[in-house]
C-alpha cells in the first residue's frame, strides 16, 4: 500500500506523539497528521454524554474540514466511588480551561477520605475513524487500576501522575512512554482500530475494493 495520510483531530502534542509511536510500529505506511498540520477550522463542542459520541463528533468535523480520513478519540477517567465521574468531563473537571494540575488537585480533594482499597478506577478511550465517504468505525480501550494519594512522575499527561495500573506499583506518570503505550486505554483502542484503518485506506486507494 502506498503511504496514506490520516488526521488525528487533536492539538494535544503528547496525544499525537503517543498515536504516532503506536502507528509507526504497527502500520509504518500510514502518516499521521495533527490539527497543526492542516488548515485551521472550528472544532466542535464536546456535547455528547458518551466517549463514543464525542469522538465521532470530532472525527466528522475533521473529515468535513480536511477531506482526509480522520481519527479522533475521547478519553477519560471513571472513578468507581464517584459514580464513574469525571467521565466525559475529565479534561474540564475543575472547570473550563482547567490545567492537568487543577484537575488532579480537585480529584484528590474529592477522594481525601477514601481508603486505598476503594480508590479503584479505569481509564476509557473511544477511538473513532471517519472516512470521506461517510463510513464510520469506533473501537474502545480500557485500563483498570487505582488512584494514588499524591501525584508521582512527569511522563504522560492528564491524570497519569495519579493512576496506578493493575499489576503495577508506580503511576503512569512514572512509566516510560513505550511501557505506558503497551497497557494504556488509548494504546488498546488504537491497536484495535489500526487494522480497520489500514483496510479502509486500502479500499480508498485508486482501484481499491471493499475488504
Structural features, described:
About 40% of the residues are buried. The model has no long low-confidence stretch (mean pLDDT about 95). The protein has 5 helices and 7 strands, in the order βαβαββαβββαα. The chain is an alpha/beta fold and about 210 residues long.
Note the main attributes of this structure.
211 residues, globular
How far the N terminus sits from the C terminus, by CA atoms, comes to 14 Å
How much is the average pLDDT?
Answer: 93
Bulk shape: globular
Main beta-sheet annotation: 7 strands, mixed
Low-confidence stretches: none
Structural category: alpha/beta
SSE order, as H and E?
EHEHEEHEEEHH
Q: Estimate what percentage of residues fall within beta strands.
A: 15-25%
How large is the count of helical segments?
Answer: 5
Count the strands?
7
Radius of gyration: 18 Å
Give the % helix: 25-40%
List the helices and strands and how they pair.
Elements: E1 4-8, H1 13-26, E2 30-33, H2 51-66, E3 70-79, E4 85-86, H3 100-110, E5 120-130, E6 136-147, E7 163-165, H4 177-183, H5 185-204
Parallel strand pairs: 1-2, 1-3
Antiparallel strand pairs: 3-4, 3-5, 5-6, 6-7
Helix pairs in contact: 1-5, 4-5
Summarize the structure.
By secondary structure, the protein is of the alpha/beta class.
Amino acid at each position: 500500500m502506498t503511504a496514506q495520510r490520516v488526521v488525528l483531530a487533536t492539538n494535544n502534542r503528547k496525544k499525537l506523539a503517543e498515536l504516532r509511536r503506536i502507528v509507526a510500529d504497527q502500520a509504518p505506511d500510514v502518516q499521521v497528521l495533527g490539527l497543526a498540520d492542516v488548515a485551521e477550522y472550528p472544532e466542535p463542542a464536546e456535547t455528547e454524554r458518551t466517549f463514543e459520541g464525542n469522538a465521532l463528533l470530532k472525527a466528522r468535523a475533521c473529515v468535513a474540514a480536511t477531506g482526509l480520513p480522520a481519527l479522533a478519540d475521547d478519553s477519560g477517567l471513571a472513578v468507581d466511588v464517584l459514580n464513574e465521574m469525571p467521565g466525559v468531563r475529565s479534561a474540564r473537571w475543575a472547570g473550563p480551561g482547567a490545567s492537568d494540575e487543577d484537575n488532579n488537585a480537585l480529584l484528590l480533594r474529592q477522594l481525601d477520605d477514601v481508603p486505598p482499597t476503594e480508590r479503584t478506577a479505569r481509564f476509557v478511550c473511544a477511538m473513532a475513524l471517519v472516512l470521506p465517504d461517510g463510513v464510520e468505525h469506533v473501537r474502545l480501550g480500557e485500563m483498570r487500576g487505582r488512584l494514588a494519594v499524591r501525584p508521582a512522575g512527569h511522563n504522560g499527561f492528564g491524570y497519569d501522575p495519579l493512576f496506578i495500573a493493575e499489576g503495577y506499583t508506580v503511576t503512569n506518570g512514572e512509566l516510560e512512554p513505550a511501557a505506558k503505550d503497551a497497557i494504556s486505554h488509548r494504546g488498546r483502542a488504537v491497536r484495535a482500530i489500526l487494522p480497520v484503518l489500514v483496510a479502509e485506506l486500502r479500499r480508498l486507494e485508486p482501484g481499491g475494493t471493499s475488504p
